[in-house]
Amino acid sequence: MKAIEAKIVVLGSQGVGKTSLVAKYISNIYSKEIGPTIGASFFTCKINLNNVKVKMQLWDTAGQERFKAMAPMYYRNANAALLVFDVTNYTTFSEVKSWILELQKNVQEPMFLLLVGNKIDLEQERAVSREEAIIYAQSIGAQFLETSVVKDQGIEQVFISIGLGLINLSSESKCSSMKRYESKDSLLSTHSSMSNLSGIQYYDGVHMAIDISQSVEANGIGRIEVGPWERDAVAHGYPQKSGWCC
Amino acid sequence: MSDISNFSDEEDSRQDDCALVDALSEINFNEHNIDSIRQNKLEESQEQKHEIHSDPASSSSLNFVDVDEYDYLHDSEWINQKCHVFILSTAGKPIYNLHGDEEKLNTLFGLLQALVSVVQTDDDCIRSITAKNTKFVFLVKSPLILVGVNKSNRSEQQIYNQLMDVYNQIIFIVTLSHMKSVYEKRNNYDLRKLVAGSERWVDHLLRNEKRTRICNSSFVSLTHSVRILPMESSIRDSITSTIQSNCNKIKNLVFAVLLANNKLITLVRMKNYYMHTDDLRLIFNVIDCSESFKSAENWLPICLPKFDSNGALYAHISYISDDCEACLLLMTVDQESFPILSNAKKNITEKLRRGNYIEAINTGMKDKGIKLKSDIGVSEIRHFFYKNKKNTQLLCSEITAPYIDNLDQFEKLEAMYYDLHNRIHRTSRPLKLIYEMHQHEIQLAWVTANYELYATFEPLVDKKSVIIAQVNKLLKWIRKEEDKLFMTGTHIF
């Protein structure tokens, strides 16, 4: 079985729900008491997609201004960036744009970008329209998803999209910093949080509708918005000769 | 590790204070006066607020924060808080406030700043104001001013030490040199931007002022010491050598600290560098209030003020495993070494598991303090804490009846200990021994070259010989168990 190992950085303003999003996926907990991240937290998880095992090393960064100087440490050598904003707060969306500019300036390697609008459970307070976010995502070659950690909507999709994006990136051999190898682990040894996905099938290039699990009322809000999947989802930088051979 | 620094100039400052109190007697800084200061402001304010003030029942509730300018100074609950801590910049910008929203206390912050600068114009520094039973203690450390207002029986020195801890916690977050350079560039900078997200560290440091649980933690800050997780010295040594063997090849690693339950398990340091107890207490505080550290590996810059207030260390912070809530901190000066430290931690966890040390740590974590009756067999002692002066480590007994389930009783006990501690360490006339009979208990404080003992006895022990016998039994037991109760010797990479 093929396996890839990739570094992912989670960026966004303070209070948009970066840690909640990651913690919800990794350990299926949501807590209001979680408190702001200081510095950065490091998580790892595995996900099996299209017969490829994706090992993710996630850097969940702090949104506070004083940690901004530390960010290059995390996005340097990252293969994917998860840019989170709060749909009820337009400033956080603008700040995502400044993150993109920073990445474009400082990162040479191709990177898979995923824009996430969080807190869609607060639909009545929405300040960033879905259309605007999609248009922006398309303009930077990113994918766009909307999520709600509180109602557990779209969380799984975020990580599946990253996984697929990384597989895509590695198959094009554009990314020299990503590790690719044959894994001896069996297919069954998936990450535990994938278990509730066992009934769903994935096909190449087919994006899935939102997984409306039992506990969530189907309000039609959570929906996957796919950016230009066919187009090269690599945002910026110039593809380098791959240092990876065979 | 060194002990709490003495205040050589306290004597002078005391005289200053007297003069100051005279000078300020006209201002007579008390509640009544705050009212009158506010009175002027009230005249300008809108009718709506008058309504609130005229109804004392409603103004005592903090639920009124949605009113634009909530008037704390007419809020009896706020006014009567036992302890207030304010932090402001020397330019008078509010930074932190223990109770309530600092935005709504601009006038008060302005007043505090004025008090400091009035005294400064005479090339002097304000230390404290005493008004009836309320003490106002100032810590002026440019570019910050810290003010502690206390209605309890704490001494000026004790409040000053508390402010010092708060100041150090701020430095821990922002680094002194960085803070200074920020203020040099912009005198009216709002430091809250830099502290954002870490205010709760300061809140947690002052948690004993908003007490919700009864525990020994305030004696730790009172005595400026750390508590040690009890375990057999052979096990502690093995854990230490596990850390040493996995870390001694890592360049630039300065400290490795393993702690659990606010108690130290072991500490390994780089040769010639020392961890100060005050720094260690800040680390304990931060770990204790950061639940989120449990779920991941964390990487953050921290500044240990006693180690170097002008530079930051990078700390790799993680819990040993899901079944062991001991927290390992690896502190380095190399910001690129996360992967190496992450790997070292993995190896340490694995080795600890293989040696069954995780089990030993978990057993130690169940410990709630020394059990006086079953462990030692001293039935007349209700509670004690013992500071080993050589290594500034503290041993506390379990809190039992009548203090454990009664917050009032416990706070009284705590206040008595603070008072004892203050009197025995008074710089003008330090004492060696205090023995006191109170209505509900007997208390003893004893300071020797090697240790300090503070103990509370049952009130009905009428013979001193019984007390002496019990204390001797206690001390003998501590000496016998010393290896287990304290961490002796230092370990280097």
TrEMBL record, chain A:
Family listed: Belongs to the small GTPase superfamily. Rab family.
GO molecular function, one term: GTP binding
Keyword annotations of the record: Nucleotide-binding
Nucleotide-binding recorded as keyword: yes
Source organism, top-level taxon: Eukaryota
Name this polypeptide is given: Uncharacterized protein
Keyword Cell membrane assigned: no
Automatic annotation (TrEMBL), chain B:
All copies of domain FUZ/MON1/HPS1 second Longin, residue ranges: 251-349
A Gene Ontology cellular-component term: Mon1-Ccz1 complex
Matches recorded under InterPro entries: FUZ/MON1/HPS1_longin_1, FUZ/MON1/HPS1_longin_2, FUZ/MON1/HPS1_longin_3, Mon1
Domain FUZ/MON1/HPS1 first Longin: from-to ranges: 84-205
The family this protein is said to belong to: Belongs to the MON1/SAND family.
Function description: Plays an important role in membrane trafficking through the secretory apparatus.
Protein name: Vacuolar fusion protein MON1 homolog
Lineage of the organism: Eukaryota, Metazoa, Ecdysozoa, Arthropoda, Hexapoda
